[in-house]
């Protein structure tokens, strides 16, 4: 059994260092994708200012809701739609300081103010995305995207369905 709590007084770099170490320990030896994503979502939800944390899996062309922590969420996102669909289509992380200013933003949670989405990519295939929302404006920046990209690389190595 593993536990993880935010290190008291730590800055974001230290928090992400601890998060990545915990993520490696959580997934080591556990082959079940859903179990791994569920535990990782629970860790991500503890990050400063995060109101929703979770994963969308690519099923066919769409992104379909996977394990998450937070309020009810949109179940299915079409390619190129919203922040998640756009990040997946572009195969790049997107940091959105104000979701109201993002063209085509999908308002799954009316309280969401900022968002960061990182695609999970293996080779040429987008497997899904990591999605974090905050009820605070500009809660995320490029440093969050950089650290979450490292987590996405770990997640891409898990046992995803073909």
From TrEMBL:
Belongs to the free Met sulfoxide reductase family. Transmembrane segments: none annotated. This is GAF domain-containing protein. One of its GO terms (cellular component) is cytosol. It comes from the Bacteria. GO terms for molecular function: L-methionine-(R)-S-oxide reductase activity. It comes from Nannocystis pusilla. Pfam families: GAF_2. Residues 32-162 form the GAF domain.
